[in-house]
Amino acid sequence: LIIPVPYWVSYPDMALLAGGVPVYVHADASQHFKITPAQLQAAITSLTKLVVINSPSNPTGIAYSRQELEALGEVLREHPKLLIATDDMYEHILWSDEPFCNILMACPDLANRTLVLNGVSKAYSMTGWRIGYAGGPANIIKAMKKIQSQSTSNPTSISQVAAQTALEGPQECIKEMLTSFKERHDYVLERLNTMPGISCLPADGTFYLFPNIEGALESIGGVSNDLELAEYLIEQAGVALVPGYRIRPRRPCQDIHRHQHDKSAKRPRPDRKRFELRDRL
């Protein structure tokens, strides 16, 4: 299973639970956290079964363009037995100039081996309702149903009706949330990039930012890596971050944190200053 890095924390464990072996393809900030066709080609072997593409991405908020997906598709065409999973959970939380596009939209000829994964948790703020869905080749969906029927069986009927109502009803709520998320993104991004020792790329969507905090570590006594900084900030400032090592296959490091900004930015000034942490950094 090929997993681009950074990744959502559950991907590797899902692969391991299924008896698979995660293969990581690293993309750093210089690549805007997006893997290249050459990297993908180099990672594929005779043992490769599946490639995961998550765009817009958790944890970086970065989205692949149609042209970038078409380029990855050129590589995937050379390996006709390889399956593709496109995780589109943040499909509607996107504010880049380009409209949403996944690998199937960019390369429709790959439909016979592409799984589209989505849900209502993010776009409709229905995390607790536990509704996700998938579309893909009938034989694969049938196999997935066999596993689910012997594990979770099915979500409650109440959740199903609520999800149907969200998907088929008015969509103005998405626009309202997107406006708020973009406002918070811009606020947090600006504050992060004015802090000494911290740099952060803007996201294309989602409600995450993925800053590099290496330079800030030097100014905090007793803190030498991302895990220690996360512990320091939650204890001293009440600010929660996800350490970068949790979303990279490595030990605590001196570079990246994921920052989630789906909480309201319209708060009293003292609360907003907790984002800045200037006195503490």
TrEMBL record:
Domain Aminotransferase class I/classII large residue range list: 2-245
Needed cofactors: pyridoxal 5'-phosphate
Top class in the EC scheme: transferase
GO biological process, one term: amino acid metabolic process
MF terms in GO: pyridoxal phosphate binding; transaminase activity
Keywords, comma-separated and alphabetical: Aminotransferase, Pyridoxal phosphate, Transferase
Protein name: Aminotransferase
EC nos: 2.6.1.-
Pfam families, A to Z: Aminotran_1_2
Coiled-coil stretches noted in the UniProt entry, renumbered to this chain: none
Family of the protein in this entry: Belongs to the class-I pyridoxal-phosphate-dependent aminotransferase family.
Biased composition annotated in UniProt, kind: Basic and acidic residues: 252-265
UniProt source species: Candidatus Endoriftia persephone str. Hot96_1+Hot96_2
Annotated region described as Disordered, given as residue ranges: 252-281
Domain of life of the source: Bacteria
